[in-house]
Amino acid sequence: MITSTTNPQVKEIIQFQKKGRARNQAGVFIVEGLRMIVEAPPQATRKLYVTVDFWEKHKTQLEVLGKVPELVSDTVFARMSDTKTPQGILGVIEQMNYAPEQILKKENAHILVLDNLQDPGNVGTIFRTAEAAGVDGIFISEGSVDIYHPKTVRSTMGAIYRLPFIIGELAEYLPVMKEQGMHIYGTQLEKAHNYDTIDYRKSTVFLLGNEGNGLRAETAAYAEAFVKVPMDGQGESLNVAVAAAIMMYEVKRQRQ
Fold this sequence. Notes:
256 residues, CATH 3.30.1330.30, Alpha/beta knot, 2 domains, seven-stranded parallel β-sheet, four-stranded mixed β-sheet, 12 helices, 11 strands, elongated
């Protein structure tokens, strides 16, 4: 059992929790909680750490899954964890590996493009909603929040395992979408159509911009039209994850 915070494995986990560079160099990310461990692809799970109490309560379930953990003292686990009230289980998972073609070659694809989104909660919520709404994949600009940041991972509630996504320069992928005849819609309030007046039954791409600044001009340039969610009241705009959810489900409604 690991009982010291100076243990090399403990130091490594803390680095993975705090530093994106460390995660990317090792090609891993950290997940916490039984649900996130159970749903992780078995072949992608490199290492598990659990407290003694957690192991005693969930030993049978973990053994059935073929997941043999490293036992850790409560004090050490508290240092390793990124949460205020740790559940007692933590896993090192290999980063997801998707090819753009897995998304781009889908018939009548439904795609989201995240342009410099910065809030982990927003990105995680978009992932969860996108999976539920039948989105085929997400393209994420390199300037966006790290999808493997612990807060983002938690917010996805497991969707990070199942929904294909690509991280990279959008200028590399948006021209391909355009060439393939996909209909690309930017989201903004000015000079925009109400979201429910558009026909989304063919390949549809939504461009979602930064929480404060919206879409970058170079991203917005690929849009054939702009859409908005009409609003009453005095609010300036909806939360990007809320607006995205409304539009994703309009696509789902039309296609059903």
